[in-house]
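Trying the structure run again after the queue cleared.
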Amino acid sequence: MRRKGYNGCRSPIRSRGVKVGVEFLLLAAVSSDGFIARRPGDPPSDWASPEEQSRFRATMARVAWSVLGRATHETASKPERRRIVFTSSVEGLAWLSPNHLRFNPAGASFDEALKIAGVDGLVAVLGGTRVYDHMLEIGRIDEVRLSIEPIRFGAGLPMFTGVGWLGVDGHLVKHGLARAGADEALNATGTVERTYRKIMPG
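Done. Tokens:
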């Protein structure tokens, strides 16, 4: 299969091989009424607490790869970070740069993307909504960490399509993830971190 390479030339998609030991961690900052942004291109750095941002940066320092949508990718450009970028601008898979693989779920499978990129280690799933939807539906979420901020947006982008904030717990349970302990307070103003992990059989 030939795709357009990051240098603009027609060249085969290069594969970095199949790796093992991949773990998928969904990260999201959300308002108290369950929105991940007020509008597209509204990054958490504009409204989340300093404590949330500090926790996020510490986690990202341990991340090998990120999975995110085009808008999120463009809002927080990081050429040095290895990323799989969801987009409809390619037929299937195409390297945008040496570290950024463009991926269209309509033309390729996520397993193909993992193999081409040679993904291993801890993978952060950073949204937005359609990325969260897809990764949950294909069973590629091992843990969820939500930083819930004590602010209300009233409207905005939900975590999952068609799922209100009060339905998120049940939606995650439906996909094999349950709360792991009590919420952790991140500051004195009401920011908490809520964790969900895979439900183990038996």
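Residues 1-15 have pLDDT under 50 and may be disordered. Worth checking whether this holds up in the mutant runs.
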